[in-house]
Specification:
The complex is a heterodimer of chains A (about 300) and B (about 425).
Chain A (H helix, E strand, L loop, with lengths): L1 H42 L2 E2 L7 E2 L3 H8 L1 H33 L6 H13 L2 H11 L6 H8 L11 H29 L3 H9 L4 H12 L1 H15 L4 H6 L11 H11 L3 H25 L9
Antiparallel strand pairs in A: 1-2
Chain B lengths: L1 H22 L1 E7 L2 H17 L3 E7 L2 H14 L6 E5 L3 H4 L11 H4 L8 H4 L4 E2 L2 E2 L2 E2 L6 E5 H6 L9 H12 L6 E3 L5 H7 L17 H16 L3 E3 L4 H8 L5 E4 L1 H10 L7 E4 L18 E5 L6 H12 L2 H11 L26 H8 L12 H17 L5 H15 L2
The chains are: A mainly alpha (about 300), B alpha/beta (about 425).
Chain lengths: ~300, ~425
């Protein structure tokens, strides 16, 4: 028996070995990713509150979600943050990359490291530090505002200011990384295009508008998609700084999912939120890809 | 011959392994509070002297992570520890389904129930008459006040009624010091005062936060902030202690565990604090104390050794020595009443100007209003903060309107 097995192994070793080598990834993927992904889809059709039995409710969780005003608020808040990432963070990162790429800039290495440091700092530590920066009475930001004769802003305390504060923090953290992407893109643009255009009499703005922007398009697409996908997964900073408050002003979709799953022990509903998030991110990414012509056939 | 010798060696090894597993028992304990974990660690070492074959492995996790891991392990049906600490506001979620992942302790506690201050020891961890945990913290809230700031305003203390508290607050405000710092993003102060009128839930599990006493309490907090202007909005997190040390306010309402926080974060104020019971309303309503916070120890139904787990919990929580150790190591005033007569409990505290905290705590403890827990505690307290506390204290809605919004949300949550 053993001998037969041995012979069979010797014969088929070459065929089997590659599968064995790649097996660890697929086994781990199946257990830790594929199974939870499929199981949470199943769970989203059940009412599963607390431990014990669960009841099949069909699409009820999704219908409730559709009518849930807190979920609507979470979508609006998250979209607000995503808009901040796309329309504030991304242009700032591009400007920073242009500055860091400029020939006249000294100490380039130092600046590049300085802007990148927030990315490798723990988000929880950053959020705790910014709780002090944003404090209404003792915070650094308001001390600055008072020093120039402006009145203090209730950064994290007022529903109107809380999300702009989180966006500001997001800019501080992610500016460096996004600038790095743009910087890589800028350095890949062949200098000859600029030289040729300059000979034809193009000014700095025209160089930027007609050479830099079109050639940076793949990087811009990447940065914007990254920013949107990342924004829709926002959790740590608002969780540490405001816990979703005041009055749900910083409640994000993932935070609502977390609250339903781990605070309210409502796993079925939380799973439905998870899948709603998948649909939202997928839709937005597809719109992006279509808008940037990714699916357009080159020969068409 | 060689094979026979090897076989004997293997058999002996196997036998040793069997003997070892038959006698050595390792129990997992999960906790999240450093002070409690240190105390349980000390207790585990003492326990080993009596049960040399038992090892209690104390594992510490951050607060969120521990409760989440526990929840995940209970859902999965494996991986849970034998014993765990569950914080009071997280207990509700664990009794939500038609099964509870903890061992009922009623029979194990037996007659010892008569030696427990049940309002804090068992009530928060009880659901449908099953006691699932033992809490060893008698978290009787007291009023801590800065006697030096009151003396500076020509006053002795903040007052014994809320009306006197307001009048004294106005005199204190004339010296540039606010009385209280009220958090407009949390329900703690509302709950401390309103628990005399049931707090969040009545004994039947129905939401009671919007009853007459709840509204009266909310009106009091609003008046302190906006009408009398003797309170300030509390700075968040570490900045709170900054304001405390800057003499911005003079009173903090807190449970005994809060004393440790004050000593750690506002050490410079040693000797400037005193404590007294909470004010009540002039018409006699209210309570001079409340319970705030707390942690209970549970045995999970995945434990292979629930009997030993209980012996350990009993050893730490239902003995005078165990409770004196908790008091000394973690500032936890015992719920085990036989410890109340022990002189070691009545030491003076220099941070509180030489007062004896235990004297005041044991004096008010019988007056703690009962705490009624509910599986909907997390949702309801969350809704109360965002729909009532913040908008009312930020003056963006009326109490009536906020309470209506809250009731609507409660009906939605609990349907």
């Amino acid at each position: 028996m053993l001998r037969n097995l041995r012979l069979s192994w010797d014969r088929n070793q070459r065929k089997i070995a590659p599968y064995l080598f790649v097996a660890p990834f697929f086994v781990l993927f199946a257990i830790f990713l594929a199974y939870p992904v499929i199981y949470s889809l199943v769970l989203s059709f059940y009412q599963a509150r607390g431990l014990g039995s669960r009841t099949f409710v069909g699409l009820e969780n999704y219908i409730e979600l559709f009518l849930d005003r807190r979920f609507h608020k979470a979508i609006i808040n998250t979209t607000y943050y995503a808009a901040g990432s796309v329309f504030l963070l991304s242009p700032l990162a591009l400007l920073l990359a242009l500055a860091l790429n400029a020939k006249w800039l000294k100490l380039k290495g130092l600046f590049r490291v300085a802007f990148f440091v927030p990315v490798i700092t723990s988000e929880v530590v950053v959020a705790l530090m910014f709780a002090l920066v944003f404090d209404q009475d003792f915070g650094l930001l308001n001390a600055g505002l008072r020093a120039i004769g402006l009145s203090a802003i209730p950064w994290l305390r007022s529903p109107a200011w809380a999300m702009p504060s989180i966006i500001l923090l997001g800019v501080w953290i992610w500016l460096g990384l996004n600038a790095l992407y743009f910087l890589a893109g800028l350095q890949n643009i062949d200098q000859e295009y600029y030289e040729a255009a300059a000979i034809d009499g193009a000014n700095q703005f025209q160089l930027f508008r007609y050479i830099t922007i079109p050639l940076l398009k793949p990087v811009i697409l990447f940065v914007v998609i990254q920013a949107i996908v990342g924004s829709y997964q926002l959790f740590t900073q608002p969780w540490v700084l405001t816990g979703g408050g005041p009055q749900d002003a910083t409640l994000t979709i993932t935070m609502y999912l977390y609250l339903q799953a781990f605070r309210f022990f409502n796993m079925g509903y939380a799973s439905a939120i998870g899948y709603a998030l998948v649909v939202i991110i997928l839709t937005l990414s597809l719109i992006q890809l279509v808008a940037f012509g990714t699916f357009r056939r080159e020969d068409a | 011959m060689k094979i026979a010798r090897a076989s004997i060696v293997w058999m002996l090894l196997l036998l040793a392994l069997c003997v070892n597993t038959a006698f050595a028992q390792t129990l997992e304990f999960w906790g999240f509070a450093d002070n409690r974990n240190k105390w349980y660690q000390a207790m585990a070492e003492e326990f080993k002297k009596i049960y040399p074959n038992v090892t209690i492995n104390i594992r510490s996790f951050p607060y969120e992570e521990m409760h989440n891991r526990l929840q995940a392990a209970l859902i999965a049906g494996f991986g849970a520890p034998d014993i765990a600490d569950v914080e009071i506001s997280r207990m509700g979620q664990f009794v939500k389904g038609d099964q509870v992942g903890f061992v009922p302790l009623n029979d194990l506690i037996g007659d010892e129930i008569n030696n427990l201050y049940t309002g804090a020891a068992t009530a928060p961890w009880t659901w449908q008459e099953n006691i699932y945990g033992i809490g060893n913290e008698l978290n009787a809230v007291l009023m801590f006040y800065r006697w030096d700031l009151y003396e500076n305003a020509g006053l002795e203390h903040p007052g014994t009624t809320w009306e006197e508290f307001i009048e004294n607050g106005k005199k204190l405000a004339a010296t540039g010091v606010k009385t209280l710092a009220i958090n407009d993003q949390g329900w703690e102060y509302w709950w401390i005062i309103a628990s005399a009128g049931n707090g969040f839930f009545d004994s039947q599990g129905a939401v009671a936060a919007d009853n007459e006493f709840g509204r009266k309490t909310l009106q009091l907090l609003y008046d302190l902030l906006h009408t009398h202007e003797i309170a300030m909005v509390a700075p968040l997190d570490a900045a709170y202690y900054g304001a405390m040390q800057a003499d911005a306010f003079a009173v903090h309402l807190g449970a005994p565990w809060y004393q440790g926080f004050m000593k750690d974060n506002a050490a410079s104020l040693a000797g400037k604090w005193k404590m007294m019971p909470l004010p009540v309303f002039a018409d006699g309503s209210g309570a001079p104390t409340a319970t705030h916070g707390g942690t209970g120890t549970v045995i999970t139904n995945q434990s292979r050794y629930p009997d030993i787990a209980w012996e350990f919990i009993k050893f730490a929580n239902l003995t005078v020595e165990g409770q004196i150790a908790a008091f000394n190591m973690a500032n936890l005033f015992p719920t085990y009443t036989p410890a109340w007569t022990d002189d070691r409990l009545y030491r003076t505290d220099d941070y509180f100007s030489g007062q004896r905290p235990a004297e005041i705590i044991s004096q008010v403890a019988p007056l703690i209003p009962p705490l009624n827990n509910s599986p909907y505690w997390p949702e309801v307290t969350d809704a109360f903060t965002r729909l009532v506390i913040t908008p009312v204290l930020q003056n963006t809605t009326t109490i009536d309107r906020a309470m209506q919004d809250f009731r609507r949300e409660v009906d939605r949550i609990m349907r």
